[in-house]
Amino acid sequence: MDKLEPSALIRRFGSKIAAASLDKPIIDVACGSGRNALFLWNLGCTVICMDKDLSGLQVQLSHDVGSNSLSASMRLIPCQIDLEKDPWPFNPCSVGGIINVHFTLPSLFPLFRSSLARNGYLLIETVPGCGGNYLKLPGRGELKNAFESAFVFETYKERPVGPSNCNSVTVKMLARRR
After folding, report:
1. How do residues 130-174 score in pLDDT, each as one tens digit?
2. Does 3 map to a domain?
3. Would the pTM of this model clear 0.85, i.e. be above it?
4. pLDDT digits over 29-75, tens only?
5. 65 in any annotated domain
6. What's the start-to-end Cα distance of the chain, in Å?
7. What's the structural domain count of the chain?
8. How far apart are the C-alpha atoms of 38 and 18, rounded to whole Å?
9. For 138, which DSSP code?
10. Is 160 exposed, middle or buried (CB count within 10 Å of its CB: 0-12, 13-18, 19+)?
11. 3-class secondary structure for 66-78?
12. Strand partners, 124
C-alpha cells in the first residue's frame, strides 16, 4: 500500500495548527484514510479521527504506524460518527484545532465555532470543482460569511467552478478563533 500524502494545506500549516492547539485534541472531520491526521500525529498532536466509515483509517494505521501502535492508540482516537445525523460530541472550547478537508457540511459550521478553543485554528478545503462537484460546493462568500465574526483569516482563497451562471466556488482557508 502506498503512503497517502496529506493535503498541501495541512503540510503548509500543520506546524502552526499543532503549536496553537496547546495540547488540546485536533479534530479531523471526515478523516477518510487519516492521511491528514497522521501528519498532525507525527507532529506530536492528539487527533480525533471522525468519520462514518473508519475502515480506510484502520488500513492506513496498520500500514503507517507499525511499531508506534501504542503511541498511536493513545494519540489517534477513532470516532465513528455520521456527521449528517449523529449529535456533535464536543463541548464548547474543548478542541485545539479542526481540519475539514474534502467534506463540506454547513450545518457543522456553528459547531466548529463553538467547539474550537480561543486561538485554535480551523482549516477547511472543499472538494475540487471536478465534474458535477460544483453542485455541492458553497456559493461565493458563504464560508467567509459563516466564520468572519468569530475568526481571523490567515488565508482565504475562493475559485469559481461550474457553469458561468453558477455561484459555486472551491475554498481553501485557514482561520484562527478570536
Report:
1. 888 888 899 999 999 999 999 999 999 999 999 989 999 999 999
2. no
3. yes
4. 999 999 999 999 999 999 999 999 999 998 888 776 655 554 556 79
5. yes
6. 41
7. 1
8. 12
9. P
10. middle
11. HHHHHHHHHHEEE
12. 100, 173
Q: What is the dihedral of CA 152, 109, 128, 54, to 10 degrees?
A: 120
Q: How far is residue 45's CA from residue 15's CA, in Å, rounded to a whole number?
A: 10
Helix (H, G, I), strand (E, B) or coil at 118: strand
In a domain, 1, yes or no: no
Query: Is 2 a member of any domain?
Result: no
Cell of residue 22, nine digits: 496547546
Query: What is the pairing mode between strands 169-177 and 151-160?
Result: antiparallel
| Host domain of residue 150 | 8-177
Dihedral over Cα of 64, 66, 53, 117: its sign: negative
Please list, in sequence order, all residues whose beta carbon lies within 8 angstroms of the beta carbon of residue 36, skipping any fewer than 6 positions away: 6, 7, 10, 28, 99, 101
Give the domain CATH number at 121: 3.40.50.150
**Nearest CA-CA partner of 46 in 58, 28, 63, 29:** 28
**15: region left, alpha or beta (phi > 0 left; psi from -120 to 50 alpha):** alpha
**How many CB atoms neighbour CB 145 within 10 A?**
12
Which long-range contacts does 35-39 make (Cβ < 8 Å, 24+ apart)? Answer: 35/4, 35/5, 35/6, 35/7, 35/60, 36/6, 36/7, 36/10, 36/99, 36/101, 37/76, 38/6, 38/64, 38/65, 38/76, 39/6, 39/10, 39/11, 39/14
